Amino acid sequence: MNKKKIGIGMGTWAWGNKLVWGYKPETDDILLKKTFFDAIDGGLDLVDTADSYGTGNLFGQSEKLIGNFLEELPKRKLKKITIATKLAPFPWRIGRNGFNHAFQESNKRLRGHIKRAQLHWSTSRYAPWQEEQLLNGLGDLYEKGLIQEIGLSNTGPKRLCFLYQKLKERGIKITSIQMQFSLLTKPTLEDEKIKNLCIEHNIEYLAYSPLALGILAIKPNKSPKPKTFLRQKLFQNILPKTIELRKLLTNIGEKYSASQAQVALNWIRSHGAKPIVGIRNPLQAKDAISALNWSLTKREKERLDFYRNSCLANMPQNPFTSP
């Protein structure tokens, strides 16, 4: 697992700019392009998106933006990064060829640069047969040379073992798995099993929502009010119960002249995982890049582990995560 790098999560690029912030294409797309280029120049080496990032008229919008930016990226830089997209196992995507059209459309939006295709979530709780067939379909894309790597997302240890073995029988390995992982995810035995399986099988462990929707970057004495109702309720519940944890992030950050976000990202890296951080402007890109320049000490990691284990509030678990 690569503990030195950080990935870029593009989930908010479809919805945030166009649906929440008051989208202005003449300025916003330029800002996003600069953010993207700065991140790549700074050493962030994984670009993670999904075909379901954007709905209605905005379906696939994140992939479209990335594809446009990639066309302007010099080939020498393009070779250094991995373009990964997640394909959603919607109920109508069934059978071994269920992802074929979705992949073709995603690859078109991403200008033919998809290196890694990922199953967006596990269907093992409600349609295990669908998941296995779709995974075989990804295996077919791999064998045809249309993708170089296969990844999973929101897949628990039991299902990971099953799917890993299925692909292994075809001589194909699972390259990565994405799970929600941060200082505010609830510590579980399943999470430890996932990390151990990643080490055993040389699978890259990717941590999405590493800053817990930005909560871990909020100053201990601040209580901002988000624009959406769901986030307001979440912040009301979590912010008062995480003041001490956020104070610790601030104190550790002062030692390195670093932000709380950098400390939270480096805590993830200290656990052998690669954080996929959402960045919306050049300042956030610069902050994430700066986290690559230093690492937590063993003592600092242990202190953060202790506060995580004793924290009175946690982020909601993803309901699509399988056993």
List keywords for this structure.
323 residues; alpha/beta; TIM Barrel; 8 strands; globular
Description:
With 323 residues, the chain is of the alpha/beta class. The chain has a single domain, classed as NADP-dependent oxidoreductase domain (TIM Barrel, Alpha-Beta Barrel). The chain is 46% helix and 12% strand. It has helices at residues 12-20, 25-41, 61-71, 75-78, 100-109, 128-143, 157-168, 189-201, 229-238, 243-256, 260-270, 282-290, 298-310, and strands at residues 7-9, 46-50, 82-87, 116-119, 149-153, 176-180, 204-208, 274-278. Strands 1-2-3-4-5-6-7-8 form an 8-stranded parallel β-barrel, surrounded by 4 helices. Helix 8 (189-201) links the parallel strand 6 and strand 7. Helix 2 runs parallel beside helix 12 (282-290), helix 10 (243-256) packs across helix 11 (260-270) and helix 10 packs antiparallel against helix 13. The radius of gyration is 19 Å and the shape is globular. The two termini are 23 Å apart.
How helical, in percent, are the residues? 40-55%
Strands of the widest sheet, in order across it, are 1-2-3-4-5-6-7-8
* Number of continuous helical runs: 13
Task: Report the CATH topology name.
Answer: TIM Barrel
Over all CA atoms, what is the radius of gyration? 19 Å
Number of strands: 8
- CATH 4th-level superfamily: NADP-dependent oxidoreductase domain
CATH architecture: Alpha-Beta Barrel
* Distance between the ends: 23 Å
The main β sheet shows up as: 8 strands, parallel, barrel
Shape: globular
Poorly predicted parts: 15-23
Tell me the name of the CATH class. Alpha Beta
Structural class by secondary-structure content = alpha/beta
Instruction: Give the percentage of residues in beta strands.
Output: 5-15%
Total discrete domains: 1
> Whole-number average pLDDT?
92
Series of secondary-structure elements, N-terminal to C-terminal: EHHEHHEHEHEHEHEHHHEHH
